[in-house]
Amino acid sequence: MTPVFTEVLTWPLLWLAVIVFGAYTTQAMTGFGSIIIALALGAHLYPLQQLLPVLVALNVPLCLYLVIRHRRHLQGRLLVTEILPWMGLGLGLGVLLAGVIRGQWLEQLFGLLVVVLASRELWRLRAPRARPAGGLTGMRLSLGGAGIVHGLYASGGPLLVHALGRRQLPPAAMRCTLMTVWLIFNSTLLVIYVWRGQWTQEVLAQTLWLLPLIPPGVVLGEWLHARVSVRGFYILLQVLLVISGLALMVGTTSG
């Protein structure tokens, strides 16, 4: 065993393993949440800039497997005509800003936005026939914002879920479409991290140590996904958004 592999096997890494298992189980169940949850909690253990490449790299095989398995549920037209163009523009801007913007305040502001949006949707969902409000312009603004946040922190899930919530997609369609978005954009971010020199030997070692947690997380997430009702699914999504937003407001530190 090489020295770098023995050096990374520490208590912080073991705690991160617990966080990663829970976070990626959540994503296998709902289609999002792994990076924002792991980032909000794991930032207590490692610098943000060290965590991001690890979490993004772990996300790619999870998304690839689930997209291939559930590809029949993919909303291809929505993906190509709305999500990729508008979120892609935001992603490019976010990647550019990532080299300039620093500070915990930005993450806290994002967390506040997530909590406000999710709380509003929970209020609408309190009635059995509640329907999300907003038109095409609002959805596109949310998609662009999701891209910017994803370029900055690989955590565009809350705003993307908020945007797609207007379409009231079935849970399987929502999950597969989200997974496809993360597969495309996180693969892109991974290349950018390598190009910027963020993909170090230590990051590689941490990724390989944590990779075996993904298969059991997928199995548990799939099991949970099949046992949650449609209405329960959407309520769970919004509750997850609130928890994620609060965690970002009070728990993250800048790298």
Rg, nearest Å? 17 Å
**What about the largest sheet?**
none
End-to-end Cα distance? 29 Å
Structural class: mainly alpha
Any descriptors?
255 residues, single chain, mainly alpha, globular, disordered N terminus
Summarize the helices and strands and which ones pair or pack.
Blueprint: H1 3-8, H2 11-30, H3 34-42, H4 48-69, H5 76-98, H6 104-125, H7 136-153, H8 157-164, H9 171-196, H10 201-210, H11 214-225, H12 230-251
Describe the structure.
The protein has 255 residues and is an all-alpha fold. It has one domain (3-251). Helix content is 78%, strand content 0%. It has helices at residues 3-8, 11-30, 34-42, 48-69, 76-98, 104-125, 136-153, 157-164, 171-196, 201-210, 214-225, 230-251. It starts with a helix and ends with a helix.
Short description:
The chain has 255 residues and is mostly helical.
